[in-house]
């Protein structure tokens, strides 16, 4: 892992900083019940999160109905209900991973500017970071709606580097999935993945990162 040139970091949220699977399962469950649709299982949610809420809702609607028309037909009602249910429980069924606070302290002690870059809507991400005591570590927080395109597109990383005043080659992306690695590669950022998150149901070591760590405080700085 070559981190000698790194001067800043962009860190993913779900599956990297906070284990939010419980929040997703509860909010989706309440939404589906409200719409009169069948429930969804935890394993499906785990392999579907990471590409933003719109993707999660469309895939869930397809999965529970088996009807290719369902995502279009139900999307608007689902989105309204999901936002309401998610915001009502945001962080209640979620826990900060071991090593995260220690890792953030170490990154901060190096004087690196830190940004949180997630595909989660900004309106969910900010209160979650506040509630979990992590907001103070980040200069900026960008959700999946902050830019025209989401990860795995490189655009959010390029824009975030620009906002931090750092070149991509000096900005480390830390994430938990192929999505983060692909975006970082295309943006020209070095990338390290944690091994405990959600990687779309795939083994994380196949994601093509520069390095893999079991805890955030295991970064060789
Ligand atoms: O898909 C989501 O809502 C969140 O994904 P991320 O925090 O891992 O980018
Ligand atoms: Mg993630």
From TrEMBL:
InterPro entries: HAD-like_hydrolase_sf, HAD-like_sf, HAD-SF_hydro_IA, HAD_2, HAD_sf, PGP-like_dom2, PGPase_prok. It catalyses: 2-phosphoglycolate + H2O = glycolate + phosphate. It comes from the Bacteria. Its cofactor is Mg(2+). Pathway: Organic acid metabolism; glycolate biosynthesis; glycolate from 2-phosphoglycolate: step 1/1. The active site is at 12 (nucleophile). It is an enzyme of class 3 (hydrolase). Specifically catalyzes the dephosphorylation of 2-phosphoglycolate. Is involved in the dissimilation of the intracellular 2-phosphoglycolate formed during the DNA repair of 3'-phosphoglycolate ends, a major class of DNA lesions induced by oxidative stress. This is Phosphoglycolate phosphatase. The lineage of its organism: Bacteria, Pseudomonadati, Pseudomonadota, Betaproteobacteria, Burkholderiales.
